[in-house]
Amino acid sequence: MLRLLVTCEHGGNNVPAAYTPLFEDHRDLLNSHEGYDIGAKELFQQLEGMAHKSFCAETTRLLVELNRSLHHKKLFSSVTRPLPAKEKEQILQAYYHPYRSRVEGLVHDFVMAGRQVLHIAVHTFTPIFKGEVRQGDIGLLYDSKRGEEQRFCRAWKERLQAVDPSLLVRFNYPYLGISDGFPTYLRRKFTDAEYMGIELEVNQKFALGDPKQWQQVQQIIRLSLQQMLEPYWENEQQEYA
Ligand SMILES: [Zn+2]
């Protein structure tokens, strides 16, 4: 009785027309990993076909950060933080709340219908951060206090590495699953049995490197997730048989 929800909070670096002047002097920043998650939209598109529902946000995270809570100091970026409070509120009303409410509402509806939700939030991370090369190809982020998430991630890692043993798959890397992110917020609203929130973090070196290898990595992720879900779908078919 599992429902798959796939989201992508940092899918693009689009700037809404009204804010174009604000970003005029920040083209480089917009096109960098700070403007969006390079490759995330492509990966999202590989996975959305499997999902019962999917959402991809393509407005730059530099306008407002959809993967942060309202209280977080990085909710607004260096570009938008200096804006007057009223304008920031308008940004929240137009871009932040609609996205967050839609996804939360969907989880709520599935849960009310007696389903368990598996939420995969697709992200990518920059290969070099503050001068250090990050040691990892794929990160699976979860809350280690949530047994369902932990079990799923352990099994998924095994699947990934069964398909390609050379892949370095790490748990809660390069961030902790319990850091301030959208799944962390949703975990507070729904129990372990109702909601599994997993952030999939893939190294941008693939999207920035050899296109063939990037395609392969995406296929491996898609195939392994499909294999993970098969037992759930089979059970469901039996239920309706
Ligand atoms: Zn991201």
Number of strands: 8
Helix content: 40-55%
**Which strand-content bin applies to the residues?**
15-25%
CATH-level-2 architecture = 3-Layer(aba) Sandwich
Overall outline: globular
Name the ligand types: zinc ion
CATH superfamily name? Zn-dependent exopeptidases
**Averaging pLDDT over every residue, what do you get?**
95
Report low-confidence residues grouped into runs of 5 or more: none
Fill in the CATH topology.
Aminopeptidase
The largest sheet has its strands arranged as 2-1-3-8-6-7
From the N-terminal CA to the C-terminal CA, the straight-line distance is 14 Å
Largest sheet, described in full? 6 strands, mixed
> Which structural class matches the secondary elements?
alpha/beta
In CATH, what is the class?
Alpha Beta
Helix count from the secondary structure assignment: 8
- The helix-strand sequence is EHHHEHEEEEHEHEHH
Global Rg: 18 Å
Overall structural domain count: 1
